[in-house]
Amino acid sequence: MPAATPAAAAVRTLQGSRHLSNQVRAVARWIAHSREHTNYTFELTDNNIDQLGWWVAAVARVPVEDARRYINEAQDDRQLKEHYSWAIRQSPRWRLADPELRLHKRLGWYALIRATRPRHVVETGTDKGLGSIVMAAALLRNGTGKLTTMDINAHAGDLISGPYADVVDAKVGDSVQLLRHMSEPVDMFLHDSLHTSEHETLEFNAVAGQLSTGALVLSDYAHASLALSRWSECNGRGYLFFAEEPVDHWFPGEGIGASFPIYASSKKTGRDI
Predict the structure, then answer these.
(1) Which of 38, 87, 173, 184 is 20 to 30 A from 129 in CA distance terms?
(2) What 8-state DSSP symbol labels residue 34?
(3) What are the pLDDT tens digits along the chain (273 aa)?
(4) Which one, of 75, 79, 60, 185, lies nearest residue 122 by Cα?
(5) How far is CA 92 from the centre of its chain?
């Protein structure tokens, strides 16, 4: 292929340089103003939040107006914001966390719980417990349901306290083994633990037999793994992915993978892949 003309090469160089300079500025802002070194938090663009509303509506099979209302509800939850600000200051890891509550994809987790009203939500990978208290807030708004969260670290869950602890059961141990020994039906499952496709698939297979009719299965790693989409295909389920668009952050974002029964009245028990 012939090389670009000198004039075109100059334009291309300028375009690339602008992109790189924007990234450099974003990294500089992050270094100056953020304490986070992993599990980055950020806001989503207005367009991205609108897209999230449509995604929630499609996955949960509710009107988009309802999905948007639930997203706005989470964004405006003063009690959640105040609890996070207080709890993060009490955490031994406060030097590695920002004091501002930024929910990004967790807005989707919240909205799905509000829309589908699950009786039992299971999360693997508690970490500080930010996702846990967001989902607990949705359960408290529903007035029903509980969250079981699992982590191999006995010190995980710094933020789970106050009213949120009333609907959260925190378990310590290997997620696959804990899932295999669960006896209670699961209405929503979220993989957010060890991010490898192999471990992710082990979790899906372990929880499959406990999924209730209409259960949702979510993945926090779907931006980098095909495990959930392949598991969904093998088990006759539908699949949709939402991609994040962060505001003023160098990190490109991740997203949410969602697996759901194609026919809500048809129970899918799953099979190993």
Answers:
(1) 184
(2) -
(3) 555 677 777 787 777 777 777 777 878 887 888 888 888 898 999 999 999 999 999 999 999 999 999 999 999 999 999 999 999 999 888 888 888 999 999 999 999 999 999 999 999 999 999 999 999 999 999 999 999 999 999 999 999 999 999 999 999 999 999 999 999 999 999 999 999 999 999 999 999 999 999 999 999 999 999 999 999 999 999 999 999 999 999 989 999 999 999 864 444 444 444
(4) 185
(5) 24
Structure tokens at 230: 């392949």
Residue 112 main-chain phi, psi, to 5 deg: -65, -40
* Dist CA 62 CA 56 (whole Å): 8
Can you count the helices (H) and strands (E) in the chain?
Answer: 9, 7
User: Measured between alpha carbons, how far is 86 from 88 in angstroms, rounded to an integer?
Assistant: 6
Which residue has tokens 């095909």?
226
For 221-255, give one letter per residue: b (16+ CB within 10 A) or e. bbbebebbbebbeebebebbebbbbbeebbeebbb
Instruction: List the one residue out of 180, 160, 3 whose CA is nearest residue 80.
Output: 160
Could you write out the DSSP letters of every residue in 115-174? Answer: HH--SEEEEE--TTSHHHHHHHHHHHHHT--EEEEEES-TT--TT--GGGGGGEEEEES-
Q: Find the distance separating the first CA and the last CA of the chain, reported in whole Å.
A: 43
Beta strands in the chain (DSSP E): 120-124, 146-151, 168-172, 186-191, 211-219, 237-243, 255-261
Query: Could you tell me the two tokens for 220?
Result: 């926090």
CATH class belonging to 34-261: alpha beta
